[in-house]
Every structure is written in structure tokens, then in C-alpha cells.
Amino acid sequence: MTAAEFVPDHGSLDELRAAVQGCRGCELYKDTTQAVFGEGPGDARILVVGEQPGDVEDRRGRPFVGPAGKVLDRAFAEAGLDRTTMYLTNAVKHFKHRPAAAGKRQLHQSPDRGEIVACRPWLVAEFEVVRPARVVALGATAAKALLGPGFRVTKQHGVPLPWPSSADRPEDFKGVPEAVLVATIHPSAVLRADDREAMFAGMVEDLTGLRGPA
Ligand code: URA
Ligand code: SF4
Predict the structure, then answer these.
(1) Separation of 6 CA from ligand 2 center, angstroms?
(2) Most CB atoms closer than 10 Å: which of 56, 73, 101, 186?
(3) What is the whole-number distance in angstroms between the Cα of residue 184 and the centre of ligand 2?
(4) 66 lines ligand 1 (CB under 6 A)
(5) What pLDDT score does 213 carry?
(6) What is the mean pLDDT of each successive set of 10 residues along the chain, which is 214 residues long?
(7) Range 4-208: architecture per CATH
(8) How many angstroms separate the alpha carbon of residue 197 from the centre of ligand 2?
(9) Which residues have CB under 8 Å from 83's CB, separation 6+?
(10) How high is the ipTM of this complex?
(11) Where are the alpha helices (DSSP H) in 80-195?
(12) Residue 94: nearest ligand to its CA?
């Protein structure tokens, strides 16, 4: 199963956003509030890809509005980037989590390879509309979705790459024009780190090269 049969051909962002609520391309739609689609201008120069919605995003229906989103907003601000000019989305559109005990927060689980690949048609459709000049991969899941399983964010963060030509599976993105991709850590890694300041500073440094007109 993949999302492919649920993605409208040549859909606008609004059409895609409406259709994703009916997606049954993998099992992750079960036990969620809703799918969380990308958000931002359709002509954004920079497209940012995260992992998947968290608990707050699942309830509010918007990407990066929980704790990781706050870290990301601060990193963008320090790197001289304005979130409202960028298109933000996730590799996987439904929240994967362990069942929560009554009254407790639901605990996030990382999506597996099958789920990343199953959900990728939505991501490809977003790229086909937005056609960004710059792409940001936040963390390993985004990097795997965009570049293939062999990419190591720990080794290659902050290095501008020609994309999709640098990807293992460029045929998935064959309708997407060449862009420059930069991978960095996921903002929730900053929240989990012992040395938050250093992790955050590294993330800001990776993002700083994205500023500028073209
Ligand atoms: N983490 C993500 O990767 N995406 C979100 O939208 C929120 C948290
Ligand atoms: Fe469809 Fe993606 Fe949700 Fe799976 S996670 S049901 S592929 S939108």
C-alpha cells in the first residue's frame, strides 16, 4: 500500500490538503485526530521537511506548532529566516505514537521505512506545486524520505547538495526541478540533548546558508 492512489493528479495545495484526510496509504491514520498537511505560500523559495506531526500538531492540524516547532522558530529567527515565507511540511502526515494511558500524553514513535515510502507521494505532490529553490531536511526521517536510506545527517549536515540528483531514488522526484538541499538535525533532538546550546548553535549554523535571494 502507498498513498499514491489517494493523491489527486495535479492537485493544488488546497486540493491536496483536503484529500490527505481520506488517505489510507498505510496504517498510521488509525488512532489519530487528523492528517497534518504542509503549510505556507505555494511559491515559497524554501521548503522545509520534518518527520511527522507530534501530539500538539495532531490535535491542531498544523505542522510545527508544538515544542519542536518553538525550537525551529527560534532557529529560523537566529538564522535570519522568516517562517511565514517558507513552506513547512513533514515526511509522514499522520502522527505515529504508542497508545497513551488515560490522561497521559501520547508518546511519539519514529516512522519506519515502509511508512516513509508509503507517504512519499504526498511529499512529492507538495514539491511539484511549490518547486522550491532550497530544501531543508530536518533530521534522519526527512533525509531518508528525500535522499534515500544511506544518508547520514550526523556526517553530512550543513553541506549544500544538488537535489534530487544526489538522491538514491531520484525517479520519485522526477517532476521536481533541481534545488539545493541542506540537511540539519531535527529540532526535537535539541530538546533531548544534554548540551542543548551547542546542538542549537549547530542547527542555526546549518540553516544560515539558506538566507539570500536566489
Ligand atoms: N516534529 C516534526 O517533525 N514535525 C512537526 O510538525 C512537529 C514536530
Ligand atoms: Fe496516508 Fe501518510 Fe497518513 Fe499513511 S501516514 S495514511 S500514507 S497520509
Answers:
(1) 9
(2) 186
(3) 24
(4) yes
(5) 57
(6) 96 98 98 97 98 97 98 97 97 91 79 97 98 98 96 95 93 94 97 96 95 63
(7) 3-Layer(aba) Sandwich (3.40)
(8) 34
(9) 72, 73, 76
(10) 0.96
(11) 113-130, 139-147, 153-156, 187-192
(12) 2
